[in-house]
Amino acid sequence: MSMHDVEQTLDGIDYLEFYVSNARQAAHFYRTTLGLLPIAYAGLETGSRDRCSYVLAREGVRFVLTAPLVPDHPIGAFVARHGDGVKDIALQVPDATAAYNAALHAGAAGLLEPTVSEDQHGRVIKATIAAYGEVVHSFVERKAYTGPFMPGFTSLTPPDEDLDTGIVAIDHIVANVETGMMDRWVAYYRDVLGFRQLHHFDDEAISTEYSALMSKVMQNGTGRIKLPINEPAKGRKKSQIAEFLDYFGGPGVQHIALESNDICATVETLRTAGLRFITVPATYYDDLNERVGPLDENLATLREYNVLVDRDEEGYMLQIFSQPLQDRPTLFVEVIQRKGSRGFGKGNFKALFEAIEREQDRRGNL
Length: 366
Prior knowledge:
This protein is an alpha+beta fold. The protein contains ten helices and 17 strands. It has helices spanning 3-8, 23-34, 74-82, 96-105, 182-193, 240-248, 263-273, 288-292, 299-305, 349-362; strands spanning 12-19, 37-42, 51-58, 61-68, 85-92, 110-119, 122-130, 136-141, 154-155, 167-176, 196-201, 212-219, 226-233, 252-260, 308-312, 315-321, 332-339. The model has no long low-confidence stretch (mean pLDDT 91). Its cofactor is Fe cation.
């Protein structure tokens, strides 16, 4: 099986698994703030003796929140070092064995050989390879499975109260890696998974008075899986990437971009639910129409919700970043709506990063 074949066999993101200290409480947070619905559970009651997992989903988004049930567990060690964070960016494939073998042949480190699990709903085949830091990629083959998530999980009845936040998919997942390591991981995704580089932003394009970073966007052939990779660049003060690496304790997932079909309605719902967003100066909107041209959205509404806009030759996109989802200044979410543009808001980088730096300064980390 060639690398080109591997690239063709990635159907999309199957799920994101987070390692957390308390899965029950984390599930409550993600349900009440992002509107994800609990659909499956594994724990002591289902025969899982060392860990507990809640699966939350809506539309094309599926999060698995996993916590240790016993002391001195590897999941507990992950959380002690990193805080709550993304462990597994799982990829859905038609043939997990072929995908795993091809990845190993291309130089990946194998962590879990293709493993079959079965129950009354059918069978799932899963295999796992290593990626940056402690992040892994599982290949998940579920074409012969009809259950709520996978064997070992029991279905959960969603609550009567449904917070519809308008989130429909995962648009992209961003990695922060150490200085000098971005190109190594770009090559990894190119060689092992057949990704191609979509964009390259250097430190001249992504810099403020204080900090700079470099970023390359890796994407699979269908465009369904987009994994930008950032590394810090030398600046006058500590960059947001350096702050992440310090508090996360190494490379990891910096943010998850969630797609909405109506970003202002989504942000209003998320804000009401308690999610906090970073804010940009009102002056950003003074010449917005001159910068990006005519928009379907009302300028006053965009200003009210602090939504940023960027246009390229294919259309425009709207975006906003949340504040960190947990105590450490590490993982956050982006809400994004695409109106033709397949870009990543290059024109907004300066405004966004200055806003992030204001938050850094409040934390004493600039």
